[in-house]
Queue: 3 jobs
Job 1
Amino acid sequence: MECLTYVEKCRTEYIWTIDKFSNYLEFYNKLETPICIKSGKFVTEMNNEMIEWNFELQFNESKSEYNDWISIYLFRLSPGEKKINVLFHLGILNSKKEELNFGSAFRGEFNDNSLGYGKDKFLQKEMLIKNSRELLPNDCLTIICNLVTFDEPVTVSRYIKNKETKYDEFIDYKKLLSDPALSDVTFIVGDKEMKAHKAVLLARSPKFAAMVAEKILDSAEKNHVHITDIKVNVMEALLKFIYTNEVDNIDGIVNDLLDLADKYKIKDLKEICEETLYLSITDENSAKILIIADRYHCEDLKEKTINYINKNGLDILATDEFEVMEKNHPHLITQMYQMLFMQRNWN
């Protein structure tokens, strides 16, 4: 008997706009007790369970060490005993509708009695006042949160019948992947042949669509395409995602898979690879991840990684990977300093 362990997750973007924010900066100054502004409720779904959340923006009392700062915390509102793990990243939108990130991603474990998770030093009051035209367009503060919720790991036996899922096109694609009888193109990687269908490739990848339009696949001898620069398990993972929209156990091949996702312009797979890389970030590998993000034009991953390096700079400067980046990719060092100086000017 085999078992399967999996974790459900849900991505949500939440935007909170507070009008006439200069009034708050003026009225909530030199407080004797902290005062909070609560956002509206927003909902995430996990295993058909609706979970309610909100944010609290806190103006701190004058005696607090955070008096000059505005704090922000995320709260779970829905009751429930089940623990929910959350990874979220906070920023604000400037006058150009650009997202300005403040700090690294936050992690929290929420249950029925959880306290809020967030940042004590989120926005400095003086920074907002000095840069109000840029940071408070039309006297509005617009906070943006990118939030990923993770359920507790679940282990089930393979013979247990899975619950029914909503119909989508991947149900039929999965059948095609397991039945190569109607395939019309064969990829040869090493000594392994992998059957595929031009129509599916065309529907899922703009790059494959171009190859079909230009009859590149047709021109291959007997519709056989030899690939010499891809490992077998990486190509298998790519085809599995194309046919099923699913991918697993990619930690060891995420760099190669990101290369393919970028090459064949498969946006969803590229985003999964970016998220996998960021969740694995450490002081030792952060410079390497930044190089990868730059190479494949992963702008969100690049910005988050630069923020991580700037925050933990002293520990990272001594790593071998940082020396490699400094020697071979000096433009990234320049971009790091630019972002650091920009943030310091706001502070």
Note: Confidence is low (pLDDT under 50) at residues 156-167.
Job 2
Amino acid sequence: MGLKNKNFNHLGSENIEIERKFLIAGDFKSHAYRSDRVVQGYMASSTGGRSVRIRIKGDKGYITIKGGSTDSGLSRFEWEKEISLQDAEQLLQLCDPGVIDKVRYLIKAGKHTYEVDVFHGENEGLVVAEIELDSEDEPFEKPSWLGEEVTGDKRYYNSHLVKSPYKTWKSE
């Protein structure tokens, strides 16, 4: 049974990711205080939005399990653990075909930090900002470089971008 339309209270709030996504409408790089290359693949992803992701960010490895999202696309279960870089490199070899390759920029705005992903490879040209919140209705600062909100649009999920890269969208 997926988590879509389910109450997440029984899972523990520390495992719920509340996130909003936006396209970019201006210069953001001059505001960044850090950037890291991120390479990730998926061992399993389903139409219900559940996925198992292997990620290398900088010099660290991670394994992440994500559940299906709520109807709004704002909230979903997320469990993540750091693993060794060597383990992550080996597990990436077992992932489904396709890889996400991006540079992630961190930008402070008020009390929050935006993560702005500049995609490369098959997703070249796509730039998406994400902000994690403590509640779905939490107010947050919207910098001038922030564009259209795409929260809940599954095309912008990384697990979807592996299967249907941004470069192919014009032909769809």
Note: The chain has one domain: 18-171.
Job 3
Amino acid sequence: MPYEWQKELSDGARLHLWPHRSLTQRGFVGFFAITFGLITLPALAVLGSPVLWGLLPFFLVTLAGIWYAIRRNQRDTEIIEDLVLRGDAVTLTRHGPRGRRQDWRANPHWVRVMLHRSGGPVPNYVTMKGEGREVEIGAFLSEDERIALHGELAEALTRIRQSSAH
């Protein structure tokens, strides 16, 4: 799963979430090499002909476009969410694409974890509400992962509330 509960803190817990990436760096190199080979293959038929010079810009623009599109997608999915649950506060920090950072903090006794079966941007949308603000968490996860996350978050919040009450 693209999230993990990290080592328990002395007075709480930490959750680290990230989007799933199906294309690794090694996979990107392989994909681009195969694409280059397949685009170059038809050029062999016109090698030594003036037609090659007419086709060459289109080949190069195609390769550059594929390179740019995949790299841009990888940069746009550089999202990391860190949730820290403690007896005195719940904090969520979202590190988004291009260095964008968003922070949220609330008292754990007033935080509600909600699962929106419909009506959200994705099915089974998970949000946390507290301090007059509602924030999403794990929207990039799969539907099953969001359902599991909702249960785990609710359970972890219950533990934090109980431990801080004593």
Note: The mean pLDDT is 90.
